[in-house]
Amino acid sequence: MFGKTTKLLVAAALVTGMGTSAMAKKVYKWKLATTWGPTLSPFIDAPKNLAKIVEEMSDGRLIIRVDAANKHKSPLGVLDMVKGGQYEMAHTASYYWKGKDINLLPFTTMPFGMTAPEQYSWFYYGGGMELMEKAYKRHRILSYPGGNSGNQMGGWFRKEINSLDDLKGLKMRIPGFAGEVLAKLGVQVTNIAPGELYTALERGTIDSLEWVSPSMDIKMGFHKIAPYYYTGWHEPATELQYLVNQKALKKLPKDLQEILIIAMRVTAYDMYIQNYHMNATAWEEMKKEYPNIKVKTLPKSVMDAMKKANKELRAEMSEKSPELKEILNSQDAYLKRVRAWTEMSDYLYLKDNL
């Protein structure tokens, strides 16, 4: 009758309600490293909220110190820090580890893949959690969904894209697998540090860039320079991840383990809805201040070419890794299963009511 999450919540509440009289109040102190800076909302908010919830639910028995990237100085080193035990936890994204372990790539998002609700459904009811546990096991780490940005925008462009020819030689900042797709079509892909992006776009060092979506783009000011804002295709459901050291988790009492797992799930969903609200608010402000922003969708010829390149690259990667092939096949099969309902419930509703 009750789902697994409900049972865990009830169990944790009962255990926590016993108070310190039922068990010795031993305090466990953990450290969590983030890939994000201290002001990068809503990404940084998820682990901060996690620490608050865990401390309250555990009656102060589990304290988590959150260290942003400016403190530990290694934003893309958090996987190794958790693996090595310097930190018990991290908050990051799996596609950053493509160079270390290609099998971790799909647990964030894939071009032309699932939307956030579809992907959450795959994680918790379609076998995704089991595949993620298998992939991270060799790193002695457990991974849990850590918050979703939803469908990210395709980027800011100084010039309109009307054909494939407009992509050839285009200088664009776009990282990860999407960058490989565009590079295959002639785009000069580059990766520039976040603090240098505005200047690079303003001075013409790059012609376009992808960042996130209105909630985070507005702080960067790209809309003041590039008037064309293209819709997304590359990151339809960017899921962040909590990484947890396996040994550290096992050392916690069972009730604290359950509290931590519940808190991760709650804060992940909260980040998703927080970001949705922030996107709506930021876009409202952008449109008001810069009414000449043009929201565009890439032409069908370009989209078809990107889908073809994406398919070819996925096939090449899958040949090299049977485990990656298993994960991608699982996602593809689940997408095929749920997309019909997404179309019925969301697409047709929006189509008839916009």
From TrEMBL:
Residues 1-24 form the signal peptide. GO terms for biological process: transmembrane transport. Keywords: Metal-binding, Signal. GO terms for molecular function: metal ion binding. Substrate binds at residues 152, 173, 210, 235. GO terms for cellular component: tripartite ATP-independent periplasmic transporter complex. Na(+) binds at residue 211. PANTHER family: EXTRACYTOPLASMIC SOLUTE RECEPTOR PROTEIN (PTHR33376:SF5), PTHR33376. This is ABC transporter substrate-binding protein. It comes from Halarcobacter anaerophilus.
